[in-house]
Amino acid sequence: MLDCGLDTTSVLNFLPLPLVHSPRLSKLPGWVSKDGTLNLEKELKECTGRVFVDSQPEFCLPERELLDLSTIDVILISNYHCMMALPYITEHTGFTGTVYATEPTLQIGRLLMEELVNFMERVPKAQSATCWKNKEIQRLLPGPLKDAVDVWTWKRCYSMQEVNSALSKVQLVGYSQKVELFGAVQISPLSSGYSLGSSNWIIQSHHEKVSYVSGSSLLTTHPQPMDQSSLKNSDVLILTGLTQMPTANPDGMLGEFCSNLAMTIRAGGNVLVPCYSSGVIYDLLECLYQFIESANLGTTPFYFISPVANSSLEFSQIFAEWLCHNKQSKVYLPEPPFPHAELIQTNKLKHYPSIHGDFSSEFRQPCVVFTGHPSLRFGDVVHFMELWGKSSLNTIIFTEPDFSYLDALAPYQPLAMKCVYCPIDTRLNFHQVSKLLKEVQPLHVVCPEQYTQPPLTQSHRSDLMLELQPPPMPYRRCSVLNLPFRRRYERVYILPELANSLVPSEIKPGISLATVSAVLHSKDNKHTLQSVPKPPPMPPSKKRKRVIEEPPVVLAPKPLLSGAVPLEAFLATLQKHGITEVKVEETADGHILHLQAEDTLIQLEEDGTHIVCDNNEPLRTTLRDLVLRFLQKL
Amino acid sequence: MLDCGMHMGYNDDRRFPDFSYITQNGRLTDFLDCVIISHFHLDHCGALPFMSEMVGYDGPIYMTHPTKAICPILLEDFRKITVDKKGETNFFTSQMIKDCMKKVVPLNLHQTVQVDDELEIKAYYAGHVLGAAMVHIKVGSESVVYTGDYNMTPDRHLGAAWIDKCRPDILISESTYATTIRDSKRCRERDFLKKVHETIERGGKVLIPVFALGRAQELCILLETFWYRMNLKAPIYFSTGLTEKANHYYKLFITWTNQKIRKTFVQRNMFEFKHIKAFDRSYADNPGPMVVFATPGMLHAGQSLQIFKKWAGNEKNMVIMPGYCVQGTIGHKILNGQRKLEMEGRATLDVKLQVEYMSFSAHADAKGIMQLIRMAEPRNMLLVHGEAVKMEFLKGKIEQEFRPLPDPKKPRTMHGTLIMKENSLKLVSSEQALKELGLNEHQLRFTCRVQLQDPHSDTDTLHRIYTHLKSVLKGYTIQHLPDGTVMVDSIVIKVSSSAEDTNTKVLLLSWSYQ
User: Fold this and answer.
1) pLDDT tens across A64-97, in order?
2) Which of A20, A452, A498, B185 is the most exposed place for a label (fewest CB within 10 A)?
3) How far apart are CA B78 and CA B83, in angstroms?
């Protein structure tokens, strides 16, 4: 199984979970259909024309019905964002396989899951809405609820216990490590340049190679640069995780982020940055580190609020091996690789597990707050939305590309606060991916259907799609693809002793053949050929009688002959051996030679020779040897 | 080249490896594909600048990130003792250490590094010290594992060595503790704590001369936890040089420590010591017990020597030497029992304090070595880094415990054709080989007529022949086919009557070339 991501956009259909009681949210009117026949006011609430489910937010899971999850041997994880559904797959499903991921992926993935669980468990909802999911009812709801797919498979968040159990199935791997899977194939993670420990995967046998490219970046941010050359010579390249913002330039967005932030602070407003607790936030903090002094923001407090804020900041400093060269070399000094250590030391950046506790007493405005969840449906961000939403001095700056910012803001409308959308998605864009594919030249490319056509909203932009020769093989949810290669050869080792005994003969220029008779040993899908053992001589003095293992029976193979017997040369040879009276008769397929003195027939054809000879063994043997002179023996 | 260490017991040429064994006048780079350094101890990396800068080697040098970070500091420390203190010439310079380190390529754990077209190396966690690695070296289907120094039981700050079932042709294992079976390190630690505790109890002062990195952090963790557990109040100091900076390496390389430290580092970093405070030279005259870690480790100069001079006269005090001392240093002298030391300016110093030597190296014991063999399943073993007699004993043990097992699977004999084209070899069935080369198979058949007298009909005769053959030829497949032929394996038999005489039957025997 390649990756195990969770579709969290489903939570946009739900009402936000406030940390403290919100009179506004609780006063939202319930939803009743226009004709009054359908009353779901307990489950659905209306806010400025949009309908939201009033229940604990639920997630859309990976497909679980198509195959028996207990038959999955291995799950390969490409980055920490792509493992959020792991507990749904590995727990309560009979899954007994192994999950492979790098150490930063595991550790940060654990933090993100822990954060998610914490967000949900902190504000438990007693009831969960289910009526609206009924097919007959859902049909009658207003959009986008009406069009939500597979809603009956949506699930509430997992528990910490399930997270721990799921993560205990993870086996750690390092970049360029070659891991044998059952001796059948070898897998190897490669740096993908997107996030700490993010990887692309090579799955290969000795003769076939599949590359899985997911969430890669060619920009120089904090992670180790992408390893491109190892992707060369793939039979199939599976491509996914391209940028969701193909038209937004990350550098430009970063600039806009800083200028908007500075503008708001100078005007006395607060800045809210909804974000994940790891990833782009490290780059944002680094950018601010350089920006703060020049923009005269030295006294503005920066807050990072998340149950895992401290862990995320600490963990980022200990993964030097997984960082870009510049950051990596800092540990030799020794200095922490990320400058946020200094921001913390100088008290410019403070981190808190939540808005409760120390934060409420130390909190100073105007300030900049980084907090989750970027969907604005749960986490501490909900509190700041309620707190700052009414003032136009404040600004919310969206940097995460996963959610439509308009959808995210919908349950908070009407809003007075300024909204700035600078999504920073460092993953490959179509231009970069075309260049990459030209470089690594896979025989076939497999990708999601969306990449093979321009985005719906920009159908004229033919540059926002993949155009390849041969065209990529598209896939969509639940489609079954046959990858265009067949496994035909295995690697076999020939032991030196056997190799020594082989007699090659040159059949064509540059091509030699040798017949091999050998014993095949297969262990762990590794095959070795060794000489057929000679039966050991029985030691006469041996007193102890032991059952001697029978040597394997050697059945000599039927030798294969190839070539043709040329008539003239053969006649000449016969003559040399004293056979002179030969009557040659031409037939449709060749010739019949009648050896009159010996009363023997030889039928010579392109593909065969037939010797009809009664009761004359010496003659037959001679003839056989003469014929064989003209043929190649395998 | 596996490791490039220095012999601490020699002061002359024998201190460094004799590279003339590799080449008399050629360049080392032409003979070595790469140098692999297993860890930062000087007996494993101490000759590196000598080799690369003085003898001359420009190829790659591989070591893990922590080793790359710590090794130049230890080399510089050692250089200072040898050159600045003992005034030796013909030794590498600071610049040479820097130039040497530029040739280092960092290795990540488990990463498979392609050194060249043939040579492939992979590092495994070895325990022992921060960043210590074992290496798997592979060319074609042959491979070697070199352990460096390793430790199979997790200790206070490091995890246990681990390797997968890589089945190398040779496993080169250190065998420092070839005959020890108990967990000797724990005992030594308990011993150390007991001695420190006793000295403190009777109001004495303990001096522990150390180098900035490695042992110092390990002993700090040891004392820190002991102080915490026993609720001791006596101060512990570490001297300048043993600053935050040194501990910082350990904090940044926390992923190389053991699981417990890694798991809890966010809440409590093991290398942020609560009980251990920075030392000021005026503290040495403070009354009452204290423990001081001071550099350098061989008591040849600097702060450790100054403190030693102050405390040497009191028999209540103690100095604990946790590592090797080079000849000529005060450390070496007092370890050899010298009780009167000649100091500069004809002064002598009476050594009355107690002198203890303790080695804390974490090595695999016999049990651990066996465990590693079980993990890696090597075909052959090579024991190094140990005493001959002990190695002989261990050799016997290994031979006794690891007898090759017979393969339970019955081997199968196979036949095929090997196609050799350019540099590729392909083994296929002979038929497939003909097909791939565009060759036709040539059938060679033989037919022989035998006459016999039999009055029955052709079919009856054939049937009689079939029954007869069936009773005579056991172990062959004999078939009577509906088209009027009998087949014995691949031999075809047909019967026809002679045209002149129906009692004379003509038997046609036809077979292909075998």
Assistant:
1) 888 899 999 999 999 999 999 999 999 999 999 9
2) A20
3) 9
At B433 the pLDDT is 87
* SS3 assignment, position B51: helix
Q: Please tell me the predicted confidence (pLDDT) of residue A538.
A: 58
Whether residue A610 and residue B418 make contact (CB cut-off 8 A), yes or no, is no
**Which residue among the candidates B174, B189, B224, B356 is catalytic per the annotation?**
B174
Give me the mean pLDDT over the A400-418 stretch: 95
Residue with tokens 């290795």: B107
Give long-range contacts, CB 8 A cutoff, 24+ apart: B395-398.
B397/B366, B397/B370, B398/B369, B398/B370, B398/B373
Phi, psi angle pair for B412, to nearest 5°: -115, 140
Which is higher by pLDDT, B13 or A187?
A187
Helix (H) or strand (E) holding A444, with range, is strand A444-448
Q: What is the dihedral of CA A320, A325, A330, A336, to 10 degrees?
A: -40
A517 to B447: CB separation less than 8 angstroms, yes or no: no
A324 vs chain B: nearest CA distance in angstroms?
Answer: 13
> Cβ contact (<8 Å) for B414 and A517?
yes
Greater confidence (B462 vs A380) lies with A380
Secondary structure class of B75 (helix, strand, coil): helix
The residues near B502 (Cβ < 8 Å, ≥ 6 apart) are: none
Q: Measure Cα distances from A417 to A48, A424, B479 in Å.
A: 16, 21, 94
Q: What is the pLDDT of residues B434-479, one digit of tens each?
A: 888 888 888 888 999 888 888 888 888 888 889 999 888 888 888 8
Q: Do A177 and B427 touch (CB under 8 A)?
A: no
> Is the pLDDT reported for residue A547 higher than 50?
no
Q: Does B420 score more than 70 pLDDT?
A: yes
Q: Find the mean pLDDT for residues A470-489.
A: 90
Question: Which of B111, B419, B426 is closest, CB to CB, to A174?
Answer: B111
- Mind telling me how many Å the CA of A589 is from chain B's nearest CA? 14
Cβ atoms B145, B137 nearer than 8 A: yes
Using a pLDDT cut of 70, give the percent of chain B over it: 97
- For the question of residue B53 being annotated catalytic, the response is no
Q: What is the residue whose two structure tokens read 């038209």?
A: A247
| φ, ψ dihedrals at A267, nearest 5° | -85, 5
Tokens 């410019």 found at: A348
For residue A266, is pLDDT > 60?
Answer: yes
Q: What is the DSSP string of A389-405?
A: TT-TT-EEEE--SSS-H
**Tokens found for residue A24:** 């506004």
> Burial letters for B393-413: b for 16+ Cβ neighbours within 10 Å, e otherwise?
ebeeebeeeeeeeeeeeebeb
Are B334 and B355 within 8 A, CB to CB?
Answer: yes
Nearest by CB: B255 against A103, A493, A611:
A103
CB contact under 8 A, B65 and A321: yes
Q: Give the pLDDT score at B241.
A: 60
Mean pLDDT, to the nearest integer, of B274-289? 90
Predicted structure pTM score:
0.87
Asked if B415 and A516 come within 8 Å (Cβ–Cβ), the reply is yes
Whether A555 shows a pLDDT value over 70: the answer reads no
- How far apart CA B151 and CA B163 sit, in angstroms, is 12
Q: How many angstroms away from the CA of A505 is the closest CA of chain B?
A: 10
Report the residue of A306, A314, A331 to disrupt the B interface, i.e. the one with the largest count of B CBs within 10 Å. Answer: A331
Got the DSSP string for A351-379?
EESSSTTHHHHH--SS-EEEES-TTSSSS
Residues in B closer than 8 angstroms to A615, CB to CB, are: 448, 450
| Residue B181 vs residue A354, higher pLDDT | A354
Q: Is the dihedral of CA B255, B256, B261, B265 positive or negative?
A: negative
**According to the 3-state scheme, what is the secondary structure of B410-449?**
CCEEEEEEEEEECCEEEEECHHHHHHHCCCCECEEEEEEE
Residue B152 · residue B127 · CB < 8 Å = yes
